[in-house]
């Protein structure tokens, strides 16, 4: 059988295999068994060993994705938040600069306490009468683990982060609180609103302090509902675009995220971000706007 040509980045292929495996809910042992290879062999694939094309094709079939997605040809597609968050962590690992449009919050700019609230929100968002199916619970844990890894990694690597957020989305967050669904007990909602306001105040504090490597812009007008990130590494820019939410009323399942380095897609999103950045409020001015929202909700 022919082996993959060197035009493909075998390390990137291995990272995609791992991300899609996690998104599909397979352990390394389970996927290795289905491939009829050893766990060590799968580990080498995920670490970037060059492998036969038919092996990658078999992996794509098992994980219900395409060969093109695993090879990184054109666009990668992710149908759940677990695999997408794993890829975000991988892309951020070597990124020197991250540009993001998120609403209402960018996870990397949240407080450490946010992880606990997010776990609660994700648990509340599953309409199963409080009983979690095994696969859904595993997927939730995969998302939370990937996010924790992203936070730890960013704290060590300290990439430059430029982020846009929507004033109206922040207002909604402060109004309904960090909740996974509507209709929670009133006492719970009160606590979650306080938690949401603490996150908004943290963003306001960051805007006022303007720490090195972090820039935050506040958009007063409507912005796109789909979040996106641009990862800069040397002369390479990769775009990630996602409908999944890890904020209030989280969405881990509905929609399709994509990752691409297509020059056309990247350039269009760079132009959009630049346009919105030119109109945003920053620094102390933006912080005051956020604090007005907190005072009025």
Radius of gyration: 20 Å
What's the architecture of the largest domain, going by CATH?
2-Layer Sandwich
Tell me roughly what share of residues is in helical segments: 40-55%
Question: What pattern of helices and strands is seen along the backbone?
Answer: HHHHHEHEHHEHHEEEEHH
Q: What's the count of strands?
A: 7
* CATH homologous superfamily label of the largest domain: Endonuclease Chain A
What does this structure look like?
The chain has 297 residues and is of the alpha/beta class. It has 2 domains: 10-73, lambda repressor-like DNA-binding domains (434 Repressor (Amino-terminal Domain)), CATH 1.10.260.40; 78-296, Endonuclease, Chain A. The chain is built from 12 helices and 7 strands. The protein has helices at 10-24, 28-35, 39-47, 53-62, 67-71, 81-93, 114-125, 134-157, 167-176, 186-209, 263-278, 283-296, and strands at residues 75-78, 97-101, 160-166, 214-219, 227-233, 236-242, 257-260. A 7-stranded mixed β-sheet has the order 1-7-6-5-2-3-4, with helices on both faces. Helix 9 (167-176) runs antiparallel to helix 10. The protein is globular and about 60 Å long. Residues 1-6 have low confidence and may be disordered.
Key features?
297 residues, alpha/beta, Endonuclease, Chain A, 7-stranded mixed sheet, 12 helices, 7 strands, 54% helix
């Amino acid at each position: 059988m022919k082996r993959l040509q060197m035009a493909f980045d075998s390390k990137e292929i291995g990272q995609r295999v791992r991300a899609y495996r996690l998104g599909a809910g397979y352990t390394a042992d389970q996927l290795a068994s289905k491939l009829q290879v050893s766990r060590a062999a799968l580990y080498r694939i995920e670490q970037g060993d060059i492998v036969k094309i038919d092996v990658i094709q078999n992996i794509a079939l098992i994980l219900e994705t395409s060969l093109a997605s695993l090879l990184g040809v054109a666009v990668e597609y992710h149908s759940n938040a677990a695999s997408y968050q794993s890829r975000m962590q991988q892309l951020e690992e070597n990124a020197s600069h991250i540009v993001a449009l998120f609403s209402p919050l960018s996870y990397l700019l949240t407080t450490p306490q946010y992880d606990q609230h997010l776990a609660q929100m994700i648990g509340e968002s599953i309409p199963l009468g409080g009983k979690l199916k095994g696969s859904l619970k595993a997927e939730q844990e995969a998302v939370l683990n990937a996010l924790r890894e992203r936070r730890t990694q960013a704290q060590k690597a300290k990439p430059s982060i430029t982020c846009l957020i929507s004033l109206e989305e922040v207002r909604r967050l402060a109004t309904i609180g960090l909740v996974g669904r509507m209709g929670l007990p009133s006492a719970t909602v009160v606590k979650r609103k306080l938690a949401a306001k603490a996150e908004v105040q943290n963003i306001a504090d960051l805007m006022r302090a303007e720490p090195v490597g972090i820039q935050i812009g506040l958009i007063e007008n409507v912005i796109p509902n789909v979040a996106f990130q641009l990862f800069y590494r040397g002369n390479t820019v990769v775009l990630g675009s996602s409908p999944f939410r890890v904020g209030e009323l989280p969405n881990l399942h509905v929609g399709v995220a994509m990752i691409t380095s297509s020059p056309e897609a990247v350039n269009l999103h760079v132009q959009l971000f630049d346009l919105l950045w030119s109109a945003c409020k920053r620094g102390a001015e933006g912080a005051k706007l956020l604090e007005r929202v907190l005072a009025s909700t």
